[in-house]
Design goal:
The structure is a homodimer. The first copy, chain A, is α/β, with parallel strands linked by helices. Chain A has two domains: 170 residues, Rossmann fold (3-Layer(aba) Sandwich), CATH 3.40.50.620; 161 residues, Pantoate--beta-alanine Ligase, Chain: A,domain 2, CATH 3.30.1300.10. In chain A, 36% of the residues lie in helices and 17% in strands. Chain A has 14 helices and eleven strands. In chain A, the strands form two sheets. Chain A has a six-stranded parallel sheet with strand order 1-4-3-2-6-7, with helices on both faces. Chain A has a four-stranded antiparallel sheet with strand order 10-9-8-11, covered by helices on one side. In chain A, strand 3, helix 3 and strand 4 form a beta-alpha-beta unit. In chain A, helix 10 runs antiparallel to helix 11. The longest helix of chain A is centred in the middle third of the chain and has 16 residues. Chain A is globular. The C terminus of chain A is likely disordered. The interface between A and B is medium-sized, with 31 and 31 residues. Strand 5 of chain A pairs antiparallel with strand 5 of chain B, so a sheet runs across the interface.
């Protein structure tokens, strides 16, 4: 494995590789999700490049750029074991001249809603650095995780609009045994937060189950997801009951999610949907303390795999990989149904949801 | 010569060409300036591609997109004679999907002053289409005319900032025998406007002559340029006298320039300069009726070639090509000199300048 610190070194090292060339862009702090990206690249490409760059321009003021986990030696070792041929790990000064003033901007809902609304400037930073990585590495295929679904849709749009000569491949989300989507930011979670973090995925599964009901609309899916998130334990009637019981038992009150959004969107455009369709995606973002978690599920599930989901589900990875199933869901439409787009609004908590 | 209408056809045709590959981007309506670009590409590259695309996104509302001169059959014939191997001439629909929403934006003075200020959105359109042409054609060198000096500086910045793997080569402005810089938009000029159009270049030469005086500052250069533009005939004391004389003679009053700007800038950054330097560029834009003309001169001239400039100069091309002379000009600096940037402001006409 060769390590390139500059654009010139990267181009030199990459020129010697066979084609097709796969690219796995990362910000380091590698986990099994990144390894799955490298594995997918190895399976379909003759050579694999990875980038390791904590891109400052995609972090907003007050976000976690300074404390983002960094352990380059460990990351390089993991890349080598995974079978990466060339790692491009530039400094910020190598990537951005002091007077750099060029930005790639993607407009429209794919960039402006949800993550784009919650993180101003984030997607301009992503679009710009991805364009640069594509022009530096010139991959035939670039691999991105389905976990960052809006980023994936934005990059697909960017690649199409700028005619970047590469394919974009999506790799299914890799989950912990309890269902939590793997993320470098999971390292921020306290043990107590880590224990409740999988509730976000369970809530998405509840939403997906609701999508399977006859006549279900996005608003029903969102409501089921929100209800599950605030009342993850079905044995208790209300979250207030749950907390009261814990206090009686002397248990500490568990950490609570602060919800940023729950929405049903078209997976390509990220336009919020009034009706469920073949590309419907259920997306959610919520914070546990200072840590922001995002996750998503396609709403074209195999029903059986959802119904059997338990609190300690171990088949979550398998369930995620079933998305491309041909058993697509076509809900019957009620003439009286609401057809306006809907999302669970930030701050509009249900009566039982604490903040 | 092969003609490609789609991105896929272009990539197919270009893959067969030897390297290095030169690219000459054009909006058609070809003239000798374009031929000089192709000639420069032929001299330094093994193969030459040209693009022919009147890019709608770089025209503002009220600009001349609809009436921009188009004669594809003539343009293709000229490209073939000039030695182009592949012409990429896409439709607007091929270049821009109906829901395209990605823009490349260059910020800073290079994009925001002068042309950027006068033509809002123009440079975003240029930056986006040039990025696309570079990713579609993948040239080793791309050739642009020095006449559009700010566009040239912006594209150099863009290519550097996005790591586009191509060199940018500047080709000297080609002029008519009377000094008018060649431009597709010259076709809009009436015979009367065409007769006075070379006054813009003469005014730049007057500014460059002023730059050769000891202690000259940008404001002196700008003043000399402005004076020349409003009083192009040195035999007359004032422009009022000139018009009065013409009326006495029964001549029609000649068309008048409406000045947009005259400025002295750093050729790379387009920051307006308080002192003359090795990269000083004198730039101007002015309108004759509905036709907007721009032109520029580097301020590192051979003095002799300026002093001999006459109203019907035939050595103007030779003078333009002398810019890279090593006889650079280093003005002595007066301690009392004004050091604030200066430009001839729009609308701040001298007493003798009509609008």
């Amino acid at each position: 494995m060769r390590l390139a610190r500059t654009v010139a070194e990267a181009r030199g090292a990459l020129a010697a590789l066979p084609r097709p060339l796969g690219l796995v862009p990362t910000m380091g702090a590698l986990h099994e999700g990144h390894v799955a990206l490298v594995r997918a690249a190895r399976e379909s490409c003759a050579a694999v490049a990875a980038s390791l760059f904590v891109n400052p321009t995609q972090f907003g003021a007050g976000e976690d750029f300074a404390r983002y986990p960094r352990d380059e030696a460990r990351d390089l070792a993991l890349f080598e074991v995974a079978g990466v041929d060339v790692v491009f790990a530039p400094s910020a000064a190598e990537m951005y001249a002091a007077d750099a003033s060029t930005t790639v901007h993607v407009g429209g809902p794919v960039a402006e809603t949800l993550e784009g609304a919650d993180r101003p400037g984030h997607f301009d930073g992503v679009a710009t650095v991805v364009t640069k990585l594509f022009t530096i590495v010139a991959p035939d295929v670039a691999f991105f995780g389905q976990k960052d679904a809006q980023q994936l849709a934005l990059i697909r749009r960017l690649v199409r609009d700028l005619d970047l000569p590469a394919e974009v491949a999506a790799v299914p989300t890799v989950r912990e045994p309890d269902g939590l989507a793997m993320s470098s930011r999971n390292a921020y979670l306290t043990p107590e937060q880590r224990a409740v973090a999988p509730d976000l995925y369970r809530a998405l599964l509840a939403g997906r189950a609701a999508a399977g009901e006859p006549g279900a609309l996005p608003k029903d899916v969102i409501a089921a997801t929100a209800m599950s998130l605030v009342m993850p334990d079905p044995r208790l009637i209300t979250e207030g009951d749950r907390i009261a019981e814990m206090k009686r038992e002397g248990s500490p009150v568990p950490p609570r999610f602060d919800l940023d959004y729950i929405a049903v969107v078209d997976a390509d455009t990220f336009v919020q949907e009034a009706e469920l369709g073949s590309r419907s995606l259920l997306v959610a973002a919520a914070r546990l303390g200072v840590t922001r978690l995002i996750d998503n599920l396609e709403l074209t599930p195999i029903r059986a795999s959802i119904r059997s989901m338990s609190r300690n589900a171990s088949q979550s990875q398998a369930a995620d990989r079933s998305h491309s199933s041909s058993q697509s869901h076509t809900p019957s439409q009620s003439p009286s149904a609401h057809h306006s787009p809907s999302a669970y609004p930030v701050g509009d908590a249900t009566g039982t949801k604490g903040r």
